[in-house]
Amino acid sequence: MTLINLSTNQLTNYSLHLADNTLLLAQRNAEWCGHGPVLEQDIAITNISLDLLGQSRNFYQYAAALINQSSNQPGNEVTEDSLAYLRTEREYKNLLLVELPNGDWSQTMLKLYLFSQFQYLLMEQLIKCGDHQLAAIAEKSLKEISYHVRWSSEWVIRLGDGTEESHQRMLNALENLWSYTGEFFIPADYELGLADVGSLKETWLKKVNSVLQEATLQFPSAGEKQEPPIFMHTGGKQGIHTEHLGFILSDLQYLQRTYPGAKW
Length: 264
Hints:
Layout: H1 8-30, H2 39-70, H3 80-85, H4 96-99, H5 105-126, H6 132-160, H7 164-177, H8 201-214, H9 244-258
Helix pairs in contact: 1-2, 2-6, 5-6, 5-7, 5-8
């Protein structure tokens, strides 16, 4: 993909979008630390949280560098910390899916799988984008995301094709989360010229369908042909969020807002 006439503002907003996605999903997954079903899986999801946090740091650092380069206010530079901890809800550009509460283990696993499968395809595309820094971060992230896809999909299959209760829980998770996936493929203005998210939809649906079939779960794609069709929630990319984002930011940002510039 060739980079054509992209402004610093567009690159900044897109970097923030990518950073916000992984930061909030890292925060949600980290809520399982000490509460996982067994120790090994508790450690696994905590490590995945750290992977996502590392990805968010890379994108925030790039966004901060872009902002500082275009600013003429020396001594008032933004940092990865200020971007993560000192922005308001409407300034966050993350997908709605990642801010949703964890629910039970099945919902957490399905949410992680649906996002990770999309993220993997997106990073593959970004490697070919014309911005070298975004391409480098994407390439560095792919190995981690590959593991996230494999690990979460195995859980989706294990629970979907497990007991009657685990199967029902996965059905409930699918019903709760599917209507937040349409936003993946609707481009925001700042994505244009950097990523073609619409072109990823068919491949993503095929891969998700394969996992759901193995999990003996009904694939919701028919919803687009139903009357009425499945309603897809949108707005996160433009800063319009669910009520849940305010609560998660209260936890995430409390220390920095209460004790500005605190270090340890």
